[in-house]
Design a protein that fits this description.
mainly alpha, 16 helices, about 75% helix, about 5% strand
């Protein structure tokens, strides 16, 4: 369908510019009037030329980033909800985007939809930009005939999952950075400052205090083996990274992490919230329960939980209830299991899953904030204790020497 660049005036007399798609210029003007816009100028040349040029470059464009998908999906849901045909809605998003990658990818999708492809199948030609889960939700929406509301739920799900991921990363980055800075400061004191000061005491034959001897020993050890320790830490990190890429080892590590007192609870809540939110979106979109469970499982990051969910899918396929199967797996928060059971009894599983996801997200945020508030002063107190120990180790010999000189 051709596209037209237009200049128009709205009901308040303000100038408007944009792009509109229509079969002919006359239909484009009618559509503008329907939108309460008075056409001033209409040009098909530039828009059509841009459409063809950018569609030809679609395969070479950079893929759409995960952080861009929620906003694009919500825009598409709004346009479809306004009864705009799907191909026109896709074209409007493409032509009004100021990012070449987004524009070119959506132009390619629009071309396939215009040729008669299902929307989900058209997205499937660009799997890097549109993940399997995204396409599964779109396919469910097309099958149920409620593509607009399903896309809106999909956008909400993507936003919530992204927010949870960012909170998890933020919760880890700050304490790690603080610990690294504290470690660097203490290491600099022990390897650069302490040796020069302690060297002044070597000329005296007096026995140094125990705390001073300990600090001297640590300082000499760091000076002699510090680089080796850094190398060992780097090699250990590389080995751990490689181990996490091995399925069997990752499974054992993920299982062990779930058993840690606070971290395990946070990980269960994080994966539980993402699983519940995604499952609710798929089920409410009309996807069969087994397909919805398989799709929701893909959002779980912990391989041990994911492995247990495979058994849940098998049990549900054999006729067991979802709540009972999840309870037997015993890997997700108990609050979520109770709400799923209540949803099955009341026939409102999607709504209960949404409520469970919201509560788990709130609990994760509260728990992580409390943990951070406790961890930050703990790191500062430990660093202050180490610095105080270094100061005491330096002052005690000086006081001892002064007392000897005064006798």
């Amino acid at each position: 369908m051709p596209s037209f660049d237009y200049e128009a005036v709205d009901a308040q007399g303000r100038a408007r510019k944009g792009v509109i798609t229509a079969d002919t210029a006359r239909l484009a003007r009618q559509e503008l009037r329907r939108l309460s816009l008075t056409p001033v100028a209409l040009d098909a040349a530039s828009a059509t030329k841009r459409l063809k040029t950018e569609a030809g470059k679609a395969d070479k464009a950079a893929r759409i980033k995960a952080r861009q998908l929620p906003a694009l999906t919500r825009q598409l849901s709004v346009l479809i909800g306004a009864s705009i045909p799907l191909e026109e809605a896709i074209g409007a998003i493409a032509l009004q985007s100021d990012q070449p990658g987004v524009r070119q990818r959506f132009l390619s999708v629009r071309e396939r939809v215009t040729e008669g492809w299902r929307f989900a199948d058209a997205l499937g030609e660009d799997r890097k930009s549109f993940p399997d889960l995204y396409r599964a939700v779109v396919a469910a929406g097309e099958t149920s005939g409620d593509l607009g509301p399903v896309l809106e739920r999909l956008a909400t799900m993507l936003e919530k999952n992204s927010a949870m991921k960012n909170k998890a990363l933020g919760a880890m980055i700050y304490p790690i950075a603080l610990a690294l800075v504290a470690g660097a400061v203490v290491s600099a004191l022990m390897t650069l400052v302490v040796p020069k000061i302690i060297a002044q005491f070597e000329a005296f034959d007096a026995e140094l205090p125990l705390v001073t001897r300990i600090v001297i020993g640590v300082s000499e050890f760091l000076g002699s083996y510090g680089l080796y320790m850094i190398g060992a830490v780097v090699l250990g990190g590389i080995a751990f990274w490689q181990a996490m890429r091995t399925p069997s080892m990752k499974l054992k590590i993920d299982e062990a992490m779930l058993k840690l007192p606070l971290l395990g609870r946070l990980l269960r809540g994080l994966d539980g919230a993402r699983f519940a939110r995604t499952l609710a979106t798929l089920v409410s979109g009309g996807a069969p329960l087994l397909d919805a469970l398989r799709g929701a499982k893909q959002t779980v990051g912990n391989s041990f939980i994911k492995n247990k969910l495979d058994a849940v899918i098998v049990q549900v396929r054999e006729g067991a209830s979802m709540a009972a199967s999840l309870k037997r797996a015993n890997v997700l928060p108990s609050m979520m299991l109770h709400m799923v059971a209540a949803g099955e009894r009341a026939g409102s599983v999607p709504a209960m899953l949404d409520n469970a996801a919201s509560q788990l997200e709130d609990e994760f945020e509260t728990t992580s904030n409390v943990a951070l508030r406790l961890l930050e002063p703990a790191i500062i107190v430990i660093m202050g204790g180490v610095v105080m120990m270094i100061v005491v180790a330096i002052l005690l010999p000086m006081l001892q020497l002064n007392s000897i000189a005064g006798q």
